[in-house]
Amino acid sequence: MTVVDDRPETVAPAPRRRPNRLLALLRNSWRQLTSMRTALILLFLLAIAAIPGSVLPQRGISPEKVNEYFVDHPDWAPRLDRIGAFEVFGSVWFSAIYLLLFTSLIGCITPRLRDHVRTLRSRPPAAPKRMARLPQHTVLPAPPGGAAAIAEALRKRRWRVEVRGDEVSAEKGYLKETGNLLFHTSLIAVLIGVALGSWFGWSGNRLLVAGADNAFCNTRQQYAEAKLGPRVNSADLPRFCLRLDDFEARFLASGQPEFFNATVTVDGPDEPTRSADFSVNSPLRLNDASVYLLGHGYAPVIRYTDRFGNSQISDEPFLTTGDMGLTSEGLAAFPDANVDPATGQRAPDQQMAFTGIYLPTAPEQAPFVRSEYPTERNPALNLVAYRGNLGLDAGIPSSVYQLDQRQVRTGKVQEVGTKLLRKGETWKLDDGTTVEFLGTERYVTLSIRHDPGATPLLISCGFLLVGLMGSLFGRRRRVFFRVVPADPAEGSPTGGSSLMEAGGLPRTDYPGFADEFAQLIAEVNGDERAAERASTGADSSDRAGVREGAE
After folding, report:
1. In the 8-state DSSP scheme, what is residue 6?
2. Is the previous residue joined to 367 through a cis bond, with omega within 30 degrees of 0?
3. CA-CA distance, 348 to 407, in Å (whole number)?
4. Considering 36, 40, 161, 174, which has the largest number of Cβ atoms within 10 A of its Cβ?
5. Higher local confidence (pLDDT), 508 or 395
6. pLDDT tier at 312, thresholds 50, 70, 90
7. 3-class DSSP state of 532
8. Mean of the pLDDT values across residues 510-521?
């Protein structure tokens, strides 16, 4: 006997695919990174991260101040150095924030740009069936010409119009989203401009004394401070030379500066030989470089004659102390003084150095420590003479503007005397040697730099402001019109002519939309009183007639 199982066959359900958690994590992380909230947070973090770069000294700008910070703060300086606090803009954490912000902005803009282009290419939507629910609504007599006349009036006011039979849809205010996208795209361009300037730019500072013997050529070794981008080598610097021919400065009676102008001679393989003038707010433009005037001062010319009758001249610049009178301090060193011409031997303990204070306009009476005016009305040089081993042969880095005080403290250099010299006066020292104050030369402090990202950065900032204005003042809004015949038997106030039902809504916060809607209705209707009726709304009989006519 055969037993037949007539129960329906059950089909096992298909196994559910387990979601890939890694892909889900990456997708969610990307969505979070490309959200506008994340972009704003990263922009805020970038601003905070830049604060140490403006508070703490940076190696690329002023390495000597970084060294001073290590001396003044021996405990904190090594810890800050480990986290890149003295090279903020080249540190890993600043670059990470920078790149994340760049990626976030691109991820935010791309889908919004795609949607905006799609919106611009699409037609305004159809009018809703119940326009009475819109924030702005009114019913008025239809203008002659019906929907065509309404559409023509809207086009004259630069609305995008779509006519569907007796219905008219219009939209306006795409400038808001366009400005928003332009603002964020320009922000990306600003970041690109900053990156170009950082990677391919270079800069250097140089103090240039007037005279052919003090000419400067654009090599890294001749800069007092130089900073090259990661993509720039010393051989990439443009080849040119500068010679300071003249410097003109005018001051007010109070000592306030009024006008500065430097005259230089430019020549070199990459520049035609020419004379050029430039001032503080008008830099000298060269091929792949710009020369900026930062400061100026005086370089006293001192002639020292040693005991063998050999004369040497120093025109080292004296740095200004910061007062309005251009009081300056500096050092004139003569390490090769008192060399025996017969043997060529130099006595190390017979080297000479003079520290001094230069006063362009010295007071009539002592103390002679501060100039009364920045121009040379009564120039005077207050010198202190030192003799001994200056320590310049030890190989230890030292300032060319200050005497090494370690040599003074150890007794290797001793003070000889002090003297106030007027222009042309000579001072005879105790060993028979003489010092003569011949006059001064002018010097200027220059900043020479090349920033390939400056032009893109300027253009981007201009577009950024334009986009910001569009984003702030643009208003997206829509209006709809429907022309329907009225039934005179129902008591329509138009006496049987067609009615126009109008409605509108702002797509963004726009407090003045009611007034604009009223003005638009008045122009479409051709009746000045229509604006008042549009602002107060139509009566119930008009709306009833429209509804019954629509039915």
Report:
1. -
2. yes
3. 12
4. 161
5. 508
6. very high
7. helix
8. 89
Paired tokens of 359: 């006063």
Instruction: Please say whether the beta carbons of 216 and 239 come within 8 A.
Output: no
Residue 281 has a CB neighbour count (10 Å cut-off) of: 8
Longest dimension (CA), the chain: 145
Contact (CB, 8 A) for 210 and 246? yes
* 272 CB burial (10 A radius; 0-12, 13-18, 19+): exposed
Q: What is the pLDDT of residues 372-412, one digit of tens each?
A: 999 999 999 999 999 999 887 766 667 788 888 888 888 89
User: What mean pLDDT is predicted for residues 500-513?
Assistant: 89
Span 516-536, average pLDDT: 72
Q: What is the C-alpha separation between 137 and 499, in angstroms, rounded?
A: 13
Q: What is the average pLDDT across 53-69? A: 80
- The three-state secondary structure class of 241 is strand
Q: How far apart are CA 352 and CA 308, in angstroms?
A: 14
- pLDDT at residue 540, as a whole number: 39
Q: What is the pLDDT of residues 123-182, one digit of tens each?
A: 999 999 999 999 999 998 888 888 999 999 999 999 999 999 999 999 998 888 899 999
Q: Give, for 358, the enclosing helix (H) or strand (E).
A: strand 351-359
Amino acid at residue number 421: L
What's the confidence (pLDDT) of residue 494? 46
Q: Cβ atoms within 10 A of the Cβ of 163, count?
A: 17
A 10 A CB-CB count for 196 gives 19
Which backbone phi and psi does 239 adopt, to 5 degrees? -100, 110
User: Which has the closest alpha carbon to 140: 493, 517, 480?
Assistant: 493
From its phi and psi, is residue 312 left (phi > 0), alpha (psi between -120 and 50) or beta?
beta
Question: d(Cα 29, Cα 27) in Å, to the nearest integer?
Answer: 5
8 A C-beta contact, residue 380 and residue 368: yes
Q: What separation in angstroms does the CA of 9 have from each of 3, 6, 13, 14?
A: 16, 9, 13, 15
Asked whether the predicted pLDDT for residue 61 surpasses 50, the reply is: yes
Share of the chain above pLDDT 90, in %: 45
Per the CB < 8 A criterion, the answer to whether 131 and 480 are in contact is yes
Q: How far is the C-alpha of 482 from the C-alpha of 485, rounded, in Å? A: 10
